[in-house]
Amino acid sequence: MRDINYWINLKEFSPYELIVTSIGWIFWITLYILIIKKIREEKYVEMPWICALGNISWEFTWGFFFYQTINLGEFFVWSYRAWFFLDIYILWGVFKYGKKQIDIPEIKQYFNWLVLAVIAIWIALYATFIASGFDHKWGSQSAYISNVVISTLFITLFLRQWRQRKFSKLMAWCKCLGTLAYTIVYFNFDFPNIFVHVIGGVVFLLDISYLIMLYKMQGKNWKVEEQIVNAA
């Protein structure tokens, strides 16, 4: 029978560190479930398609090729893989409905081929970044670089389509709080890693900016639409 430390590494990490890490994972897994729910109900992927492809590529690379360095315990290795398996459905949603995010006809025409090309590029970038020794043993550097892209493109997608679609505040909170939990716990995990702390702060500011936009701009827009419908 496996020792508890095989699944959750209590020898090297405190319960606080592992609990906060688990909270971050729970928020992100909830985000994925909410995205899947929206795909099923509204036929729309509420994550920028390039980010969805970056996510599944990161999870594939870390969950199945470089996982040996993840020393938090086997449970956390499988948490990476759990993200990947949920992302398979999101990837299907990107193939099926991702074109709804795009306004340029020439890109729409070759969208599925572009999706495959972008996945290959993401995997190549992650794999060579890790193999070159630039990443942390849990993938924090590459994850936060990707997170800057995700947070930025969430904002640009919202600004382009907020008048046509209602974006989820709960998704935005899950993304914000999930990443924030990791940023907080990295002060214990890897205190000298100033890059992660700074980029984590940047991601948090972007996520808060997105939430402010959701509450201010979208709330106003949908109140106006509701008044128009009621008047009719």
Strand content range: under 5%
The number of helical runs is: 9
Query: Which ranges are low-confidence, i.e. pLDDT below 50, for 5 or more consecutive residues?
Result: 222-232
Helix/strand/pairing category: mainly alpha
Average pLDDT across residues?
Answer: 91
From the spread of the alpha carbons, the general shape counts as globular
Strand tally, please? 0
Order of SSEs: HHHHHHHHH
Largest sheet: none
Terminal residue distance? 67 Å
Calculate Rg over CA atoms: 19 Å
Helix fraction, binned, reads over 70%
Walk me through the topology.
Elements: H1 4-7, H2 15-42, H3 49-64, H4 74-97, H5 105-109, H6 111-131, H7 140-161, H8 169-189, H9 194-231
Helix pairs in contact: 2-4, 2-8, 3-4, 3-6, 3-7, 7-9, 8-9
What's a quick, concise take on this entry?
The chain is mainly alpha-helical and 232 residues long. It has 9 helices and no strands. The N and C termini lie far apart (67 Å).
Task: Explain the overall architecture.
This protein is an all-alpha fold and 232 residues long. It has helices spanning 4-7, 15-42, 49-64, 74-97, 105-109, 111-131, 140-161, 169-189, 194-231. Helix 3 packs antiparallel against helix 7, helix 7 runs parallel beside helix 9 (194-231) and helix 8 runs antiparallel to helix 9 (194-231). It is globular, with a radius of gyration of 19 Å. The N and C termini lie far apart (67 Å). The relative contact order is 0.13. Mean pLDDT is 91; it is low at 222-232.
Keywords:
mainly alpha; 9 helices; disordered C terminus
